Amino acid sequence: MVKLIVDMMGSDLGSAATKEGVRRFKKNHPDCELVLVGKLDELSDMEGYEIIEANDTVGMTAGAMEVLRKKDASMVKAVRAAADPEMHADGVISAGGTGAFLSAATLILKKIDGVKRPALVTSFPKLTEKGGYVTILDCGSSNENTAEELQQFALMGSLYSNAVFGVENPRCGLVANGSEEGKGSPLGKEAYKLLKEDTKVNFIGNVEGNQLLTDYTDVAVCDGFTGNVLLKTTEGVAKGMGNEIKKAFKRSCWSKIGYLFAKKGFDVFMGKMNPKKIGGAMLVGVNYVAVKAHGNSDGESFESAMNIAYKLAVNNVVAKIKEGFVK
Amino acid sequence: MVKLIVDMMGSDLGSAATKEGVRRFKKNHPDCELVLVGKLDELSDMEGYEIIEANDTVGMTAGAMEVLRKKDASMVKAVRAAADPEMHADGVISAGGTGAFLSAATLILKKIDGVKRPALVTSFPKLTEKGGYVTILDCGSSNENTAEELQQFALMGSLYSNAVFGVENPRCGLVANGSEEGKGSPLGKEAYKLLKEDTKVNFIGNVEGNQLLTDYTDVAVCDGFTGNVLLKTTEGVAKGMGNEIKKAFKRSCWSKIGYLFAKKGFDVFMGKMNPKKIGGAMLVGVNYVAVKAHGNSDGESFESAMNIAYKLAVNNVVAKIKEGFVK
Questions:
Q1: In this complex, do A143 and B177 lie within 8 Å of one another by their Cβ atoms?
Q2: ipTM of predicted complex
Q3: Contact flag B255-A272 (C-beta cutoff 8 Å)
Q4: How many C-beta atoms lie closer than 10 Å to residue A41's C-beta?
Q5: Nearest to B148, CA basis, from B190, B107, B176, B199
Q6: What is the pTM of this model?
Q7: For B234, which of A233, A258, A268 is closest by C-beta distance?
């Protein structure tokens, strides 16, 4: 059985959003055990759940020092509970500040033996007939990386893609500014050499930004700075275009009628691109499942982050990464 | 009067595409003088134009050495013609390989006094009610940059935004993985300090990927590697979503009817996002207008690259950048 610890106080929209997320999730996963962490008075209506009291929160821009200092913060308590051997928990979910969560997860859950640096993973839907997802890492856990770290991201991303999306022998590309071997940042060129010799990864060479949502690769590896820009740019373009689609349909009474006719196809498509359905990013390379939900999570997106954590736990992603680093 | 030199042999689609582009452009700009560079037999139907014979081409992946060696290549001859004082030309357009064009432009047109490194500029439409464009640089002319180079990109981008889009005192942001001052790559943090003290630029701090197509900034500065990833990712998402929109309308006979009703709004929107309408990137920081058209330019996108070159020439962007670096 899967057991997840949930930080109920992290969302910008308050505990109403996380409570809605928990209720939605629980309806579809009655078998999953949940432990909720937060203020008792705000969680008094969550009957039937185990609750850990926590009366403080960490700021959105908090770093490692604040995390260590704020022992009664809900995020810190949630992460500590996940790491407590007596809890037998699989992982933790929080919508709190990214920096604080990454610090807490790294310091408290600790890195898997052999892993140089954990990485934040996100997956985007491929916009192709065949569908599927591309797994991108690091999406901003680090600011700067070494070639050896990128090489490890490739292995962790491949294990993730296999475990979460069932991709056999996932293709793994290195994000670069050109497809030929000589292209890439100085860091990327060094990582290219390491990956070319790496027998644990199905390395397919460089991948360019315009190939990410095609079926060119299953995993895309980059440093945390580039990954963060790439992730946010994709979200920005998708959101901007989504707004334009709505505007185009609202333009006139004719276009509104048009929407009624075309609604079905657009609902499928907009659902696929909805960041709320993606909802979270996982920190890979630590000893438990650690999912960071969007800071402005509403019930739907918090549920989706919980779904990701559940999927990762059921598929034993952490154990598979541990095995990958032993071999 | 504006005079432009056109490399007719650079497009992957051959001279038929560039010839169509030239004819379309000329129809709307009868006053602009054009000099065409290419094979005489392929240009025999271009009556009334001055033609420079060139019987060779440079490869798509050619670098500086090949550019210097291939003296009869159309791109090299076109760039040389632009730099020839007797020509009195304003600039040059080519759809040939990016690396070769950047090398040729830098070596032959030469950097403007004071400019450390030229930068490739692209502009994206802002997806807002107000419209307008965000100017992004460097989009891949360099692989690695110094903080001083980023500082100069900010000034060149601001002058470009003012000259081409008429933006008064353009806001200039630094692409980063977070909005606060402490965020950014090590390079970005250094550039932040320089830009904060720079009185020539209206620096507004960090800008994140999801703010680029909003009205948050007018100019976005980044190193060439990040800019190239950012540019191609944006193109990829826009293309992927464009395909999904088409698919959604083709889904059933009902959705096809829906398209007929909503067509007008979608044509406006898809036109805005059409990369063919953007068509080219400019190399700023050299002594002439230098526009790189898409490698797979058809007539429409080659025309649009010519439009950009014309606009840059009419608005004296090169002279304004020269002034900006004298002050």
A1: yes
A2: 0.83
A3: no
A4: 10
A5: B190
A6: 0.87
A7: A233
